Amino acid sequence: MKRLNSQLQKDGAPLELILLIRTLLAGCKEISFRVSQGALAGVLGSTLSENVQGETQKKLDVISNQILKDTLKESGYVKAISSEEEDTVVPCNPNGNYLVSFDPLDGSSNTEINSLIGTIFSIAHAPQWMDADDPSAFLQPGTQMVAAGYVLYGPSTMLAMTTGKGTHIYTLDKTHGGFLLTHPNIQVPAQTSEFAINASNQRHWEAPMKAYVGDLLAGADGPREKNFNMRWVAAMVGDIHRVLCRGGIFMYPYDNRNPSKAGKLRLLYEANPMAFLMEQAGGLANTGHGRIMEVMPTEIHQRVPVLLGSKEEVETCLTYYADAK
Ligand code: AFP
């Protein structure tokens, strides 16, 4: 079975990017170990790393953030980091060539119920003109990403990643510690009868989303003339993994609970990396008003509405937005 390294080489990733990805994934393997300790993580700590010893009473999302920060800072490849867990950017090596953005532990409330969680990341080139502590360097559209992916900490630890040459899924072989290519060049089915949305927010949605989901729920008796099934992991990483594997549409739309927020999910740490994976797997990723990867960020913690998944289903959903104009 092919290893991560040889697939990255086959996809033409430059050596320094491969080394950076391997460094990042070394951090994710340690997170995987700590997550697998579950409720014991705060009691037993880890034998894998000295640098977080003594911090084991912290919550797993804080520990995960620290692991990734330490690992990436030490690597020398990274000029700056932006993380969902940090108020502002974390400067690293002033001569580093890359910027890394991540959500260290997406769906962290699922840790309390031993359910799916994961790390989501993206990598872009660091502009030469920037200072390492300058957040504006991160304000690039998603089209500038050179790699993106997630590591899902589930019954097995899996990596979904793209460097722009298709989306590949790997499984961590814990016997030798490497990621093996188990689902090469995955393709999201264009059609689906499965959708994912937190329906408890229905009364806050905009009219097009209410109409679209209403028609899904009407099933065979409604205009879609077929029944749909609903799934919600409450960790984007788990829902997107399901969509990549068997199709579906995932939505976290704009809602009017807090009009100052354009949605719940973060552009840099969640929406963009998942959009890149989805598009590379033949799916679509849109805000309802345009392609997610073309959104020009105005600040690093910006939120966006998210509609992504099976191509034809996303297109159908978008017709409701177009009709509302
Ligand atoms: P946390 O990482 O704070 O648990 O949030 C997870 C998340 O941002 C995303 O992964 C889920 O899709 C979404 O929140 C779930 O939101 P609801 O609380 O509305 O179900």
Keywords:
325 residues; alpha+beta; five-stranded mixed beta sheet; binds 1,6-di-O-phosphono-alpha-D-fructofuranose
Helix content class: 25-40%
Strand order of the largest sheet: 2-1-3-4-5-6-7-8
Strand content: 15-25%
Q: Regions with pLDDT < 50 over 5+ consecutive residues?
A: 44-57
Multimeric state = single chain
- If you compute it from the alpha carbons, what radius of gyration comes out, rounded to the nearest whole angstrom? 19 Å
Q: Please identify the structural class as seen in this structure.
A: alpha+beta
Element order, helices and strands? HHHHEEEEEEEEEHEHEEHEEEH
Bound molecules: 1,6-di-O-phosphono-alpha-D-fructofuranose
Tally of contiguous helical segments = 8
Q: Mean of the pLDDT scores?
A: 93
Characterize the main sheet: 8 strands, mixed
3D shape: globular
**Total strands:** 15
First-last Cα distance: 50 Å
